[in-house]
Amino acid sequence: MSSAAEQEAVDTAAMESVTSVESPAPHVNGQWSGPVILGRESALRTVTRLGPPVWPGSSHPLGARFRTGPDGSAGTNFALWAQGAEAVEVCLFDAEGAETRCALTELTHEIWHGFLPGVRPGQRYGFRVHGRWDPWTGARFNPAKLLLDPYARAVDGDFRLPPEVYGHVRDWPQQYIADTVRDDRDSAPHVPKGVVVHDDDDWADDVRPKTPWADSVIYELHVRGFTMRHPGVPEELRGTYAGLAHPAAVDHLVKLGVTAVELLPVHQFAHEDHLLRRGLRNYWGYNSIGYFAPHAGYSSSGTAGQQVGEFKRMVRALHAAGIEVILDVVYNHTAEAGELGPTLSLRGTDNRGYYRLQSDQRRYADYTGCGNTLHAGRPHVLRLITDSLRYWVTEMGVDGFRFDLAAALARSMHDVDMLSPFLAVIAQDPVLRRVKLIAEPWDVGSGGYQVGAFPPLWTEWNDRYRDAVRDFWRGALPDVRDLGYRLSGSSDLYAWGGRRPYASVNFVTAHDGFTLRDLVSYERKHNEANGEAGRDGTNDNRSWNCGVEGDPPEGTEPRIGALRRRQLRNLLTTLLLSTGVPMLVAGDEFGRTQGGNNNAYCQDNETGWVDWSLLEDPAWRELFALTSRLVALRQEHPVLRRRAFFSGRPRGADGLRDLAWFTPAGTEMTERDWYAPAAALGMYLSGRDIPGRDDRGRQIDDDSFLALLHAGDRPVSWVLPGAPWAAGYELVLDTAREDQAAPPGTRHRGGETLTVPARSVLLLRVAD
C-alpha cells in the first residue's frame, strides 16, 4: 500500500476502536441499567500517524528498556502487565506533542510487549489500554485516557486534573452514578509522559556506609523544604536533589552527626484535586503515581531523564559523607484515589488487578484514608512493589525504606497478617532483606494498629515512645512505668522472635504533627491555612505551651522563652539517651516552627520549609550545639546504643546490674514506686560487660552513666547512689543550663545529695 493508504487504514482502525456513543439508559427499578459514554468526537480528534515497525520483543523486564535488538539495532522494549485488556498501544510523543500509536500484539502471561527499533533514551511515551467498561464489575478500561507506565523510570510534565483526565464524566449531573459514565475525551494533552531512560551506571565508584542499626541516627527531611531557604545553597539548586547534594547542605548533616537521612517521598507524585482547587499543592508527596521515577519537580537539571542522574549524584554525595539514604515509600495507595478519582495509570491498566475492591466492585476498599488500597497480596502487585524496591537499591543506590502505612501492605484478604505474602517475599529476597526496613506499623482499617508486631528484619516507628516522652515532660504521665520501658528499648514490645532494641525507631516528632518547638509553644493546632476548617490534623497533640499559646511578641515574656528552650533540651536529651534508634526531624535541632500547623502537608512555602536564619540567633545555635554534642556522645559510648536488651539481673559478685532504676531518695525503685505518681526517674546504665563483641572479638566495655530526669515544676533533692553503683560521679550535662557548658571538673560523691533543677535532665558519668 502507499503511505497515504497505510495512513487511511490506521486512522480507520483507530476510529473503529472507539466505542460508539450510547444514549443515556433509563433507570430500572431504581438502578442504572447501562453505561453512558461521552466524548467520541473529541477522542477522534487525535491524529494517529503510522508508527515504526513493532517487533515481538520480550515480556521481561516490564516497562520501557533501551537495549540492542535482535539484528544489532538500538531500540526500546516495551512491556505492560494488563490482565483483562483486549488491546494495548504504546504511544510515542514528539517535542510538539504529536502522537504516534503502535499496537503491542504480543501477549505472554498477561504481559503485552513489543520492541520498537530506533526508539532511544529521551523518548516520551504512554500507554492506551482497550477493554470493557463495566464499573459494576470493577472493569474501567478506557483507551481515551493516556496511561503512565507503572514502570516508567522518569516522568516529564505536570499532573493537572481537568475533566479530560478522568475515566468517567466528572461533572455528570447525577453524581451518585457519575463514575459509571465513561468519558471518551482524550487525556493525552493534559497528563505527563514517561521517558525512556538508559540505565548505564554500575555504582563501581560508590561506597555505601552500611551503618549498623544500633549505631544509626536518622534525620527525616524533605528534599525541597530542607534546601529552599538555605543561604549556602545556590538559588538555582534550592529545592532539588542537587541542592541536597551541595556541600553546604551536606556539611550541616555532618556537623550534626547523623548517619542517615530519611527522605519524604521522592517517587513521582501528583497533587489532589481538592488542593489544586484551593490554590495549594501536595507538598509532602504521599500521593505516589510512579514507583520507579524520582519526582521530576525536585530536579534542577531537567525532566527528560536528567532527574535520574541528578538523584544518583545526590546519593553518591551523601554516601561520600558517610550518610545513608532511606526513602519514605508509599506503596499502600496511589494518586488515583477512589472511584471518583482520575485515571492516570493502574486504574486504566487493570483496575481489578491492582486495587482492593469491595464486594460492590464499583467501590474501593480503603485502608489508607486516601480512597484506594493496592492489593499487595496479588503476585503482579507484589512484583511491582519488589521490582521497584530492588531498582532503588541496585540502580539508584539507596540504603533502605520506611513504609508508609505498612499494615495495609501486610493485609492478606482483609486482616493484617504477619505471614502475608508481602512480608514473606521481603524476608526471602536476597537484595531487600539486607537493607534497612522501617514500618509505619498501622493503617486506618480495622485491626490496623500493629506496633510491636512486625517480624524480625523490620524496625518500626514507635509511637508509644513518642506519647510517653511527650506526656512525661508535660506532666501528664500518671506514673513512670511506661517511660521506663521506652527509655530502655521497649522490651515489652520487641523482646521476642530475636528482635533487638534497635527494632524501635524512637521519635518525639515527625513530619506529621507539631515540630519540636511547636510542641512546647501550642496546645491546639492552627491549620487555618490548609483551608479545611480545622478538620485536618490530629487533635491528640500531647503538647504544653508553657503558659502562652504561640510565640509572644518579641521582647516580652522572656521567662516563657527560656522555659520552652529548656523543654526542647529535655526532649532532645531524652531522645538521644534512649536505647533504640533515634530519629530527628529537620530543623528541630535549631527551633524550627510551623506556626502551630500540625499538618503542613500542603504548605509548600515558608511554613513547610526549614528556616536557616534561626541559626543566626545565639539561643538556637546553642540548641544545635547541644544536639550535636548528644549525637557525638551517643556515638562515643556503646552503652547508649546497645545491641541487646538489658537483663536487669546482677552480673557479678557485687550485685551490679546492667540497668537499675532509682528514686530521688537514692533507693532502687520497688514495684510500688513504679505504680505511684511521680515526676522523677533515675536510670543507671552499666557499661561493664556489654553483650556482644567488637569486630575483633573483644569484650565491649564502656563508662557507666546515671541519668536523672525530673519533669516537676520545683527543684528536687536527689541522693546519688553509692556503692556498688559508684564511688563518685562527674557531671556531663545539665539541661537547666542555657549555655550547655557543664562546669569543668564538677564531681559528686556517691551518697551525696544533689539539687536537680525543675524540669531538667542531669547526666552523670560514673567516676571511681
From TrEMBL:
InterPro entries associated with the record: GH (IPR017853), GH13_cat_dom (IPR006047), GlgX_Isoamylase_N_E_set (IPR044505), Glyco_hydro_13_N (IPR004193), Glyco_hydro_b (IPR013780), Glycogen_debranch_GlgX (IPR011837), Ig-like_fold (IPR013783), Ig_E-set (IPR014756)
SUPFAM superfamilies: (Trans)glycosidases, E set domains, Glycosyl hydrolase domain
GO molecular function annotations of the record: amylo-alpha-1,6-glucosidase activity
Pfam families in alphabetical order: Alpha-amylase (PF00128), CBM_48 (PF02922)
Residue span(s) of domain Glycosyl hydrolase family 13 catalytic: 220-634
Protein name: Glycogen debranching enzyme GlgX
Membership in a protein family: Belongs to the glycosyl hydrolase 13 family.
Extent of Basic and acidic residues compositional bias: 527-539
Lineage: Bacteria, Bacillati, Actinomycetota, Actinomycetes, Kitasatosporales
Entry-linked PANTHER family: GLYCOGEN DEBRANCHING ENZYME (PTHR43002)
Keyword Hydrolase belongs to the record: yes
Organism expressing this protein natively: Streptomyces vinaceus
Region (Disordered): 1-32, 527-558
Keyword line: Glycosidase, Hydrolase
Family annotation (SMART domains): Aamy
GO biological-process terms attached to the record: glycogen catabolic process
